[in-house]
Amino acid sequence: MTPGRRSSTFTRLLRHGFTDASAAERLLDSAELAPVRDDPFLLEALGATADPDLALHGLVRLVEAQSGHTARQELLDTLIAAKPLRDRLLGVLGASAALADHLSRHPRDWEALVTYEPRDLHPGVAEFERGLAEATDPISLRVAYRRCLLSIAARDVCGTTDVAQTAAELADLATATLRAALALAEKAAPEDAAVCRLAVIAMGKCGGHELNYVSDVDVIFVGEAADGADESKALRSATKLASHMMRICSETTVEGSIWPVDANLRPEGRNGPLVRTLSSHVVYYQRWAKTWEFQALLKARPVAGDLDLGAEYVAALDPLVWKAAERDNFVVDVQKMRRRVVENIPAAEIDRELKLGPGGLRDVEFAVQLLQLVHGRADASLRSGTTLDALQALAAGGYVGRADALQLDNAYRFLRSMEHRIQLYRLRRTHLVPEDEADLRRLGRSLGLRTDPVTELIREWKRHTGVVRRLHEKLFYRPLLDAVAQLAPGEARLSAEAARERLEALGYTDPAAALRHLEALASGVTRKAAIQRTLLPVLLGWFADSADPDAGLLNFRKVSDALGKTPWYLRLLRDEGAAAENLARVLSAGRLAPDLLMRAPEAVALLGDGDSSGLEPRGRAHLEQEILAAVGRAENAEDGVRAARGVRRRELFRTAAADIVDSYGTETKPAEADQGALVDRVGAAVSDLTAATLAGTLRAVVREGWGDTLPTRFAVIGMGRFGGHELGYGSDADVVFVHEPQEGVDDREAAEAANKVVAEMRRLLQVPSADPPLLIDTDLRPEGKSGPLVRTLKSYEAYYRRWSLVWESQALLRAEPVAGDEELGRRFIELVDPLRYPAEGLGDEAVREIRRLKARMESERLPRGADPKLHTKLGPGGLSDVEWTVQLLQLRHGWAEPGLRTTRTREALAAAQAAGLLGAEEAGILDEAWVLATRVRNAVMLVRGRAGDTFPSESRELAAVGRYLGYGDGHAGDMLDAYRRTARRARAVVEELFYGA
User: Residue 117 to residues 113, 157, 167, 787: CA-CA distances in angstroms?
Assistant: First the structure.
């Protein structure tokens, strides 16, 4: 061979798509291909395959495998003379290494590709049964199955059939194979076959006439006694036949296996009998079946055995399938099923998952099946087991928008084509897009992408999964808007009844009101209505994700009505990715956040991701600066405090919104896993906000009554949760007030001024207004409710020296200056430090007194009728248990352990563990219980809009608390059990550490 010729051939091979032109040149020069080496059609046909190198290698192996010169010459002559065979054979060899292996083992099977008649183009079950007719055992059945599969693959890769037709042919071949396998089982045990009737019901993709190349074939078996036979004996015989049939298909032989036959969709799954009578099936589905089992029955189809019995099975269960949407738990089940389960997919594979990944095949299939269950009960045209046929029927009936249906149809076809070609290569069950460059190149070329196969494939794949992800939720909600909007003449739309059914299925308890809200928001031809129609399909899905979709939609309408004329509101929701989802979460999570928002709807702006501050809590210094500036601009104290309360309302909303978003998570950000961090953020934010509000109120009152200088120095000391930076949404501000007369000021004048300040602060913070009141609680002052509201520092010193009780020392553990004269506040702390951290620790009698107080409180203060085990404050293992235990450790050891000298419960607990005063396990148990009880109290306030120490009794409120705590729909019982378990473990630690048990 001259160098010039080699160079020319080498270049031609590269131009025709070969990647290893040197190896291809050697194969073309081999003796096997000598007769056709120079044929121009051969190289062109090889270049048209998905993988020319693979096709050429397979062809050489096939020629080598022929039994002699005559057989080889017959193959090569036919290959050159018959274009249909050439395209089919080389197409298969270039797409499937597994079928090339089959041809090399069975070299005459290429003849199955020669026939090219109209009836050969779309064979059905009868044709495949003829193709399998000569099989006499499991091995010959496998060979015949692969021969039939060869013809399906040939039509597929040549474009003779589209992906839906290919999937239907694969299902028909599976039907014929199941029939052949059952015939072999019956032939092996004629005595069993004689006493029973056995029907094989195809489920899943086989039942839906949309099978993959390699897939489990899902089946259910129905058995009855033959005339005159004993039923129990008949069922044993039917079970033997069914088991043998499954083994014939599933077991690995020298010719491999066909596919696994999976009967786990039967009643009771693996735990149930393999074969049941028809009446047993009916009873199970009437009494015990779950919603997903009715969803599975959408694809039930008799395929083998006694087809009359199979038809009776379908006729008996069909009415139950179409009543599934009327079941009491349908909404909860649907909401569970709508949430894609991807936890079991390894993180490294989730982005390559064609079936279960985001925007994958399962999203389309599930959406279509759900809409069938909801609307198929009233519209028989929707009752198809085939995904694409059902999608077309949904569009024709107006249940899905036509444009959306077309996009989903295209995406589903592309993704199924990818799945088919990936599986065809090795005939292995997989749904993962390969990572290897050569595999991606073959895959891209097999789908007709020839310019830059890898880049084009990835781009198209991502585009189609993006379409599915975008339309998955929209599919449910867009027709609801069309039902209340003005459509073009001739456009199909949901009827009012169908829209009601759709909303009920998605969790809306008052669908008529929901439709009114949608009509008010989205009808008309204004730009505002057009934007709402774009936003609402996604928002409705997020509302349906919550425990109270109706409230979410109602609140959204209220906010939209209030802000509808502002130019930035809808633009914010449309253009800033996080804003719309954050708003949906906030509006449907309970009453508190929406109530705060309705009082000043412009706070919606805080939810956007364009604002750098967003939902991050403002620090105390920043808040105090803003509030003091607002007070300074006000004309009088009332206006100043009104401004301060307005800032407080806005910041409470910011804190609540951030808490909700972090607790629920979003599509781009998972829920915060560290529950303690969530509690700490809320506690710090609300405590800082309360301190800044008190500072502003104090400034406003002093300025109005006395100008720049009050006759007495004045400080506010935070106590309880306030001093501990642990305030919740519904907490009062526990404080004590201290003053010290200015030099030269009479004590009486100073006292009068101090008392006037306290009285006016309390009044102004509770004046009825649109802003929530801030209640000041002074019950922790010396002498409690009987003592003066405000004392001088000297008065505190005298009282504590002579009269102080142990409970007051305990209360002072939380004392921290929060507003007013900083130096006076510091001196107050210096005064009380020896009381709360007594030298050498607390004496035994004082310890016994604290224990007596705690025991009395447990017995006397728990509300009548409350379940102690679920009371977050006073119940066993609740907040009181943990806090008193930690505070006893502080009183006993704070003098020696500096880390214990903190007002914060969790900090003190960690310091006690670090000092060896309790073990890591004990500290963890107490911390978990305290955090959980605090989260429950926050949740109750967010959900109900008012404070509470116990779980709500109303089911929807309880579910909303559960969602906030990370429990899905239907798991409120699990939440309560988890709380009881956590509290019980904490109480055991308290018994040991606090009571010395």
Answer: 11, 18, 21, 105
Answer for the pair 408, 468: CB distance below 8 angstroms, yes or no. Answer: yes
CA distances (Å), origin 383, targets 219, 298, 380, 664, 801: 19, 7, 6, 36, 85
Give Cα separations from 632 to 637, 639, 702, 708 (angstroms). 10, 10, 12, 11
Q: Which of 650, 590, 575, 568 is nearest to 615 (CA)?
A: 650
757 Cα distance to chain centroid: 52
Closest-CA residue to 698 (of 732, 731, 737): 737
Write the pLDDT tens digit of every residue in 563-594: 878 888 888 887 776 888 899 999 999 999 99
Collapsing DSSP states into helix, strand and coil, what is residue 887? helix
Q: Is 353 helix (H, G, I), strand (E, B) or coil?
A: strand
Please name the helix (run of DSSP H) or strand (run of DSSP E) that holds residue 955, with its range, or none.
helix 955-964
Closest CA to 414 of 362, 463, 452: 463
For the beta carbon of residue 519, count every other beta carbon within 10 angstroms. 14
Q: Are 580 and 540 contacting, i.e. CB atoms less than 8 angstroms apart?
A: no
In sequence order, the 6+-apart residues with CB closer than 8 A to the CB of 93 are 49, 54, 55, 58, 59, 62, 99, 100, 103
Q: How far apart are CA 637 and CA 700, in angstroms?
A: 5
- Burial (CB < 10 A; 0-12, 13-18, 19+), residue 356, is middle
Question: Inter-axis angle of helices 879-893 and 905-914, to 10 degrees?
Answer: 50
Fill in the amino acid letter for 342. V
Distances (CA, A) of 772 to 32, 588, 720, 729: 91, 20, 21, 11
Q: What is the pTM of this model?
A: 0.74
- In 341-460, DSSP assigns E strands to none
Give the pLDDT confidence of 220-269 residue by residue, as tens digits: 999 999 998 999 999 999 999 999 999 999 999 999 999 999 999 999 99
R_g (Cα) of the chain, nearest Å = 38
Residue (of 307, 128, 292) closest to 201 by Cα position: 307
Which two tokens mark 97? 């290494």
Q: Which residue has the tokens 């609740």?
A: 878
Low-confidence ranges of the chain (pLDDT < 50): 1-5, 340, 487, 610-612
**CA torsion angle 977 983 984 988 (round to 10):** 170
User: What's the chain's average pLDDT?
Assistant: 91
